[in-house]
Design brief:
The structure is a homodimer. The first copy, chain A, is mainly alpha-helical. Helices cover about 65% and strands about 5% of the residues of chain A. Chains A, B: It is found in: Cell membrane; Membrane.
């Protein structure tokens, strides 16, 4: 199980592909897990990868395709015929198959679906494609184990054997009534302990968590996490059981959400990776840098407006980067705590209380930092005036930065806007400008200029 | 299932607790899910919460206790007797029980364990407490369904009924040999389809992923995610099956890891929440702010060294915050991409190639930003000299910042240090200083001072 992809191994594979030695490749790779095959494919160029996909069994390659980076998958799929793509999809659960089909253009989608032999599978995939993205309908799979209230335990086990053929893992056994409406679930334990002739209606648990096809992904993730569910059934508008969502799909979603917040905080529009093209990375990064440039130009303009002060007290200028940096740091800290708290749904109480707490916190930190700075400037320049004006400014700037950093995400959240956008460049830039403005005003005041 | 905690409901509960109306409270809350009870407890003060914990059935309250914030749980546990705590633990899976016990002081731990009636349960908890934190041993639970190779299907089903009593969910059926060593797993499907007299040795799957008690949590999470596992068996040094880890424990771990990176990037030492005390928050935030202060003082000292330049070309000073901010932004972007890539294990290839790519990217972004800045300064001040020197500096600073932002996390990672520490204040501060230094040198060069 300790699979390690060595450069030697990759070289061997590449050589075998160059020799078109299909037999040796099949032998070499037959014991490999699809996730390991996927890791291997990522190291090959798209022609080599395509060759392997065509060569190996769809049972392995279909799952490996799912694991690939979207770009590579797209390049491989372009080299496959609709029939070949259909063969891969045939092996996948409906939710995964629908995800792959959704990446194809409309014409190819139709062609591929026509080539899927299992008609029920094809119909299921088409159904999934019709749901809105970001809803439970688009996230669910059609594969599940479903028994009727009216069945006996013996009949139920018989039917489960049949259904289990299509289901990779039996998470839960869902119980429905005559009209197919979800009425409860059956515990495996109860099924194993009941006598063969017992009716399901006598032993099933009539309480079951569920979501509808229109439930938002975020809400699905929240419910599954809160109630520690490993699978949740999905019903349509009429309460009819139509699919189920498993925890592994939610794990990916949770991870992506956490990463998105992090990327936003770093000034990167979501969904880029280290291996993306320079153009894609530029598109994700440049807009935020422009915002930063704008802020810097704004700061320069503000400082330009204090020309007299600066000409006669040039020392003040030496500390503008410090003030700006501290305003930015404090703002990012405050906003990150709020953004994370909001994401985890544990920011409670009024905005007013939050702001008072942040103000006290900032005052405490600010006092410590300002004191240190005061003694430093005093030691360096030997004048109390400058030390006092700069460190008092720092103190005020830190408090204001903390308040802005707390208020903006809370405000955005109230307005229904993703507060994560407030961390990072946005808050740094606005705090830079506010910081410098406050700094110069206070210095002017204290120095009596 | 759409549980909403209203202030009215909380007020009702508080009133009933004040009246010590245990009967009404039990009636009102008996249908509630433990996760909802936990949400309610979070809204009460610790005396009220303790009252409810003592009042309601341990079956519900034990699980609710697990969901609580650590601080609140600690305050509640302080008000419970060892016997009462033992009653709660009796209802929990061993992994959760061990987590709670680990939070108690040594003396209370002993007392509580003595009061646990189920001796096997107590012994299991003690075993779990002995494993190192952050290893599979400390993460696993002892509850699992285990069958012997030598059994028949009929015997297996009989035995499973017995074992299933203690297992909340049957994830996988693990197969062991005479010595208890893990030899494979059994699919429920195969069990359902095989005849009663079939030997397990004929139908079990001899291939199974596993980890040892010493495997690092991070590695467990990586394996479970990579291979899409919902549970993984844990073996000891001799290959004997001793426990299993389920995906819900890993979900929490994955989430915490992603949040930790985010907090580090924001300059917050891990593990604080919006609701923590001001002292705890200060401890997490102040050290990073001191680092920023140090950086700012360094920047001031550097600028002080260019006094002549600055006296005669004061306009240069107006743009130092811009230069520092841009260096910081670019550095944070580059490092965030690398840190996230390393966390997801998809940063491959040599450091050299990464640096070249980042350099090209930074050059592209830098050229665009520098051009805009040039025209802005030209328009504002009407001189080409300043515009040229400031924007050329910006271009160079952006490239250097990108390289530093890429190199530092890669370097730390190679050294076995968590690269997340490199994002945020650390990289911003060093980039501020480098940026300003480069800026002033280049300006001096171009202006020929």
């Amino acid at each position: 199980m300790q699979f390690q992809l060595t450069t030697d191994f990759i070289a061997t594979i590449e050589q075998l592909i160059a020799n078109k030695d299909g037999h040796a490749l099949r032998e070499l790779l037959k014991e490999y897990h699809f996730a390991d095959v996927a890791e291997l494919l990522e190291e090959l160029n798209s022609d080599e990868a395509t060759y392997l996909i065509k060569l190996l069994k769809s049972k392995i390659t279909s799952e490996a395709l799912m694991e690939l980076d979207e770009d590579l998958r797209e390049r491989i799929l372009e080299n496959l015929t609709p029939t070949e793509i259909a063969q891969e999809l045939e092996e996948l659960d409906t939710d995964d198959a629908a995800d792959i089909i959704a990446e194809l253009d409309d014409k190819t989608q139709k062609e591929v679906i026509d080539k899927i032999i299992d008609e029920e599978h094809a119909a299921d995939i088409v159904e999934l494609l019709n749901y809105d993205e970001d809803t439970a309908g688009a996230l669910m799979a059609k594969e599940l184990v479903q028994v009727k209230e009216t069945w006996t335990v013996a009949g139920c086990v018989r039917e489960m054997r049949r259904q289990a053929e299509n289901v990779t893992r039996v998470h839960s056994i869902y119980v429905t009534n005559r009209e197919g409406k979800l009425t409860g679930r059956l515990s495996l334990k109860d099924l194993l302990t009941a006598s063969e002739k017992t009716k399901i209606s006598e032993i099933f648990i009539p309480k079951v968590d569920y979501v509808t096809v229109h439930t938002d992904n975020e809400e699905v993730a929240r419910i599954m996490q809160k109630y520690d569910l490993e699978a949740i059934p999905v019903v349509d508008e009429n309460g009819v059981l139509v699919g189920r969502i498993t925890i592994d799909d939610i794990v990916d979603f949770i991870k992506e959400e956490a990463e998105k917040d992090y990327q936003m905080a770093a000034g990167i529009s979501q969904d880029v990776e280290a291996d993306d093209s320079i153009i894609a990375l530029t598109r994700a990064r440049l807009p935020w840098l422009f915002l930063g440039l704008l802020g810097g130009v704004g700061a320069a303009a503000i400082m330009g407006g204090f020309e007299e002060v600066l000409n006669n007290h040039a020392i003040l200028l030496l500390f503008t980067p410090l003030i700006a940096a501290m305003a930015g740091n404090v703002g990012v800290q405050s906003s990150a705590i709020i953004v994370q708290g909001l994401a985890n749904d544990d920011v409670k109480g009024s905005i007013g209380n939050r702001l008072i707490k942040e103000m006290l916190l900032a005052a405490l930190n600010g006092a410590a930092l300002a004191t240190v700075l005061f003694f430093f400037i005093w030691g360096w320049k030997g004048t109390i005036d400058y030390g006092l004006s700069i460190s008092v400014s720092l103190f005020v700037v830190i408090i204001v930065a903390g308040i802005i950093g707390t208020f903006i995400p809370l405000f955005l959240h109230k307005r229904g806007i993703d507060p994560a956008i407030a961390t990072g460049p946005f808050i740094t830039t606005s705090n830079d400008i506010f910081g410098i403005l406050i700094y110069l005003y206070i210095a002017k005041l204290i120095l009596g200029i």
